[in-house]
Structures are given as structure tokens and as C-alpha cells.
Amino acid sequence: MIKILNLYAGIGGNRKLWTGDIEVTAVEMNPLIAQIYRDFFPQDKVIVGDAHQYLIEHYQEFDFIWASPPCPSHSRVRRSNPLQNKPIYPDMKLYEEIIFLQHNFNGKFVIENTLAYYEPLIRAFKMGNHLYWSNFIIPDKKSDPRKHDGTIEELEKRKGFNLSQFKNIDKTKILRNCVEPEDGLYVFNCAFKDKQTILEVQH
């Protein structure tokens, strides 16, 4: 069994196509979004809390760690309209987690974030409009950028999540932040391509 820690889990876009002999622990700060994740993945252990703190306290318990820290302070989109977006400090927890896992974790890990408005401080793999820091090779592949435009129904179809039963949430924002499920599966398969437990693309 592969024990997986899924940090900043959102509604589980990266995790959606994972199958096989896995045990997933997901950490999400927002209780409403954590409940949506729990509804989609009732077999996973879902923790409402600080993913950054949970990582340093529990990293040794897992074989594979995926983290998708918040990206707005790094994103090129923020810098595309400086009159509308006030300059802020970039959230350096992103690099704290990269450096920490590089030097302390014995399993496989990947940290995902958007293309930054600056040159990344640590070299990463690029796929589509996103960067992946990992301790295994992630070959580039043709990957459609996340499409932020469209109706909620169009975004739901693209991501494969139906949010119609959920109320009082910003569905557009949640779906825009959702990792493409195919990319999540591709990255996982890159991590475990040498194991019999490789997760097959769903047909």
C-alpha cells in the first residue's frame, strides 16, 4: 500500500484519477471545501487544518507527498494588472516546503504551483502553465492550461466535478484552482513507474 499525504487538497483535482492500493490523508484549511473533498472521496482521511504545520509534524508517516500551496502571491496573473492588484510579499512557505522535503523526506514528493512572475528560486519541472518541484523526473508533456473562462457547468465538465449540491461557496474559484485530474495522474505515475502499483489511466 502507498501511503499518500495530499496537502492543500482543495476538492481533490490532483487526486481524482488515483486508484489502486493507496491510503490517502488530505489536509485542507477551509472546512466547507474539506467537506466537499470528503463527499467526493469518502475513503480518504480528511483533516481540516494547517497543511504547512501538518507536513512538518507528520511527513515521516508517508510514502508520497503532494502539496499545492496557495499560488496568488507568486502568479503572473497577479502582476498582469498592477493597478488592480496591490503588491504583496510572495508567500515563502512554498520554498520552505521544497527545501524541507528535499533534505528530510525519504519518499517521493511533488510540490505544484503556477508559473511565477519571477524566475523560480529553485529549479522546477514545467508542464503547461505550472511548475512541479519533485525528487523524481517529470518529463514534459502536452498539457492544456487550466481554462479559467467559461460557465460553472463548463468548468465542472472539464474538471469532472459536479458541485450542484453544494451551497454558499465560490464554485468558479474552486474549479479554477482545481488541478487538472489528468495531470495529477500523470505526475503520480511518473513517481511510481517502477512499481507494480502504477496507477493506470482510466479508459
Q: Could you characterize the architecture of this molecule?
A:
The chain has helices spanning 31-40, 51-58, 76-79, 93-104, 152-159, 171-177, 181-191; strands at residues 2-7, 22-28, 45-48, 64-67, 108-114, 125-127, 130-134. It contains seven helices and seven strands; from the N terminus they run ββαβαβααβββααα. With 203 residues, it is α/β, with parallel strands linked by helices. It has a seven-stranded mixed beta sheet. The protein is 30% helix and 18% strand. It has one domain (2-147, 180-191): Rossmann fold (3-Layer(aba) Sandwich). Mean pLDDT is 89; it is low at 196-203. Helix 5 runs parallel beside helix 6 (171-177).
Can you give keywords for this protein?
single chain; alpha/beta; seven-stranded mixed sheet; 203 residues
Strand order, main sheet: write it out: 3-2-1-4-5-7-6
What share of residues is helical? 25-40%
Global Rg: 16 Å
What is the CATH superfamily classification? Vaccinia Virus protein VP39
CATH class: Alpha Beta
Secondary-structure element string: EEHEHEHHEEEHHH
Which band does the percent of strand residues land in?
Answer: 15-25%
Which class of secondary structure composition applies to the elements?
A: alpha/beta
CATH fold name: Rossmann fold
Stretches where pLDDT is under 50 for at least 5 consecutive residues are 196-203
Arithmetic mean of pLDDT: 89
For the largest beta-sheet, the strand count, sense and barrel status come to: 7 strands, mixed
What coarse outline follows from CA principal-axis ratios? globular
